[in-house]
Amino acid sequence: MIPIMDEVFNARNDNYYHLRRACVDMGQGDLCLARFTRHSVFSGVAMAGTLLELICPAGSLPALKAAIDHGADGVYLGLKDNTNARNFSGLNFDNKSLAEGIRYAHNKHRKVLMALNTYPQPATLARWQQAVDTAASAGVDAIILADPGLMAYANKTHPELRLHLSVQGSATNYEAINFYHEHFGIQRAVIPRVLSLPQVENVIRNTPVEIELFGFGGLCVMVEGRCLLSSYACGDSPNTFGACSPGHAVRWQQTPKGMETRLNGVLIDRYADNEKAGYPTLCKGRFEVQGETYYALEEPTSLNTLELLPEMHRLGIAAIKIEGRQRSPAYVAQVTQVWRAAIDAVKNNAEHFRAQPGWLAQLDKVSEGSMHTLGAYYRPWK
Amino acid sequence: MLMQNIKLSLGPLLYYWSRDTTLEFYTQAANWPVDVMYLGETVCSRRHELRFDDWMNIAQQLTDAGKEVVLSTLTLIESESDLKALRKIVDNKKFSVEANDMGAVHLLSKAGVPFVAGPALNIYNPDTLALMASIGAVRWVPPVEMPRTMLMSMPVPDNIQTEIFAFGRLPLAFSARCFTARHFNLQKDDCQFRCIEHADGLDLNTREGEAFLVMNGIQTQSASVHTLAHRLDELNDTSVTHLRLSPQSQNMAAIIKIFRDTLDEKISTREVKAKLDTCLIAASCDGYWLGKPGLSMGAG
After folding, report:
1. Where are the domains of chain B?
2. Is residue A27 assigned to a domain?
3. Which residues does chain B have within 8 Å of residue A174's beta carbon, measured at their own beta carbons?
4. What is the DSSP string of A167-195?
5. Domain count of chain A?
6. A92's torsion region: left (phi>0), alpha (psi -120 to 50) or beta?
7. d(CA B227, CA B169)
C-alpha cells in the first residue's frame, strides 16, 4: 500500500489538489486526506500528519527548541539581516545556530522553514540569492518567499527546494496564488490576515496550493506586503527593511500630559498614569478623526482563532501559523503547548471540540494588550 | 529620458465621488494636457456610482479625445465577485489594463493582453521587473516608496516604460477593514457609502493635532501631498517615461498644467513649488524620492 501512496504523492501536486477537493466534497476531507498525506515525504523528513500542522516562530535557538519541545510540527526562522520581515537586533540565526537548529528539529522529525520574505533591491539582490543558497545547503525543509524574482532564482537554482509563498506576497485570491504556483511551483501559501473563512474556503477549492493561516499572535490590520505606513513615518518599511515601526525610530517620553510614544517624532499615543503604555506600532496608536480620539485603525489586540479550529480543520487548512519571532522562548513554549493540545483535540474529535478555559487563560497572559479578536475571519470585524 | 519628452498620466480616481461629479471630472479631463488616463475603481469593490459599462463609455470618449486609456483593476481582490469584475476588465478587448494584483497579472498574461504593472505589485528589483516584462508588462509603476537612487540602479528592459507616482496623496496601505465605516460605527457590509462625503479622504491627526494620514475607505493615504514638481530636472537621466498625477477634488486642471509647463521648461523647477503650493489641499512632501521618511520635505 505504501509504495502506491508514495507514487501518488511523488506525482504532481495537482493530484493532491484533486484528491483533496474530492475528499472535501465527499464530506470526509480529514479522514481521507490524512490517509493520503501521511506517507508523503517533505524534503526527506517524514511528515507527522500533515493537516493542520502547527508552525511556530523561532526568533532564536532557544525559542526553536522551546517550540519543538512543546509540540510544534515545524518552526520558521530567518537570518540576521533584512532578508526577512523580523529584522530586529538580537534576533534570528547565523550559520552556526541555523545548523544546530536544523539538527535539533530533524532529530525529532520536525521541520524548519526559512523566511526570506522581504523584497530584494537592485544593489543588494545578490545577498538575497546567497540567502536562498544558504537555506538550500543548510537543508531547510522549505523557504518562504514574497518576491517573484527571488522565486524564479530559487526554482532555477535549487529545483528540489520546496517553496512557500509568504504572507508578505499579499496573495488574497486563488488567481494570485495560482500565478506563483504555475510560474515557480510554490506548494504552500500563507494568506494575509484579511479574508473571512468562507473566502478562504473558496480559495482552497480553486487552487492546488496548500493553505496556511495565521492562528495566533500580533494582528496586522493592513494587507501584509501592502503597507508602507512605517516607511512613510520613519523611512523603513517591512518590504525593504524587514521591520515595521523599528526600534531605532521609537521614543518613550514621560511628559506632564502622560507617557508619550513617538515614531520618528510622530506622536503615536499618549497614556494616562493608569494606562499601560504599549509599543508604538503605527497602526495601533490613538489618533484624532473629526474631533474624536480613538484607535482609528486598530486596537492593540492579538489574533486568536482557537475557536475556529474545527472549521479550519474541515476546510483542509494545511497549517496554522503562530506569529511572534520577536517574542521570548517562554512565550513560544506557552503558546505552542496550548495550540498543540487544541489541534490534537480537534483532530481527535472535531465535532465536540470546545476551546478549554485553561487554554484561553494561558493565551490571555501572553497576548498583546490582553485582548483577542477573530480578525477578518469573522466578517463583522471588517 | 529628456524632461520635455516625459508624458503625463492621470492616475485612477482613488476616492468615491458622486456619479455626476465623476462624469464632469472626466469630461473636463478630455481637454487637459495629459497623455494617459487610468480609469476604474481600484480601492473598494462596494463602490458603484459608476459601473463597468459607465467606465467603458468614459474610456471611449477619452480615446476619441486622443487620450491613451488604461483600465485599472482593484488592488485588493478577495471574493469570487471581485474576480468576476476583474475578468470583465481583462476581457474588455478594447483597452489595455493596469494590474494592481498578482491575480490580475495571472489572467492578463494567460490571455496574452499587454498590461501596466501597477504600484501595488511590489516590483523592487531587476529580476522581478524582467519577469513582468517577459509575461506582457509594457509599463511599470515602481512602489511609491522607491527612492531615486534605487530607481537609478535598476536596469530597465528596453521594452518597458517607467511611470512614477509624482503627485498626490500617497496610497500607503490597504486593509480588509473599512476605516471610514468604522469611524461612523458602521459595519463594512452596511457602510452606507459614507466615503462619498469625503472628496479627498477623511483626515487622521495625531493627538497633538498634526495632520498625519487620511482614511479613504479600506485605503490609508498620506495626509501630505507628495510632489516631484520641483524635482523634475532630476528625471533627465533616469528611465522615467511617464509621471502619474493622482486626482484630487480641486485644482486638478491647474496642477496638470503646472507639471506640463515645468516639463516643457516654461516654468523653472525653482519657481514651480510656490505656484503649485497654491493648488494643494495639504502640506507637500517628497521624502520617498530622497530615500527619507515619506512625510518629510527635502531642502532645495
Report:
1. 3-170+225-278
2. no
3. 103
4. GGG---SHHHHHHHHHHH---EEEPPTT-
5. 2
6. left
7. 9
Question: Does some domain include residue A23?
Answer: no
Tell me the whole-structure pTM to 2 decimals.
0.91
Strands A287-289 and A292-294 turn out to be: antiparallel
Asked if ipTM goes beyond 0.85, one says: yes
Does residue A189 sit at the B interface (CB-CB below 8 Å)? no
A201 reaches B (C-beta below 8 A): no
Contacts of A270 in chain B (CB under 8 A): 207
CATH 3.20.20.70 fits B3-170+225-278, yes or no: yes
Range of the domain at A367: 40-219+302-381
Question: Do residues A93 and A239 share a domain?
Answer: no
Q: A160 and A90 in one domain?
A: yes
Taking only residues 260 to 299 of chain B, the set having a beta carbon closer than 8 angstroms to any beta carbon of chain A reads 287-288, 291-295
Same-domain check for residues A233 and A365: no
Q: Which residues of B touch A197 (CB under 8 A)?
A: none
Q: Do A172 and B175 touch (CB under 8 A)?
A: no
DSSP per position, A83-128: TSS---TT-SB-HHHHHHHHHHHHHTT-EEEEEE-S---GGGHHHH
Which B residues, 231 through 250, put their C-beta within 8 Å of a C-beta on chain A? none
Give me the tens of pLDDT residue by residue for chain B, a chain 300 residues long: 788 999 999 999 999 999 999 999 999 999 999 999 999 999 999 999 999 999 999 999 999 999 999 999 999 999 999 999 999 999 999 999 999 999 999 999 999 999 999 999 999 999 999 999 999 999 999 999 999 999 999 999 999 999 999 999 999 999 999 999 999 999 999 999 999 999 999 999 999 999 999 999 999 999 999 999 999 999 988 999 999 999 999 999 999 999 999 999 999 999 999 999 999 999 999 999 999 999 999 975
Domain end position, chosen among A271, A294, A317: A294
Contacts with A, B 142-181, CB within 8 Å: 143-145, 150, 153-155, 170, 172-179
Residue A193 has what pLDDT? 84
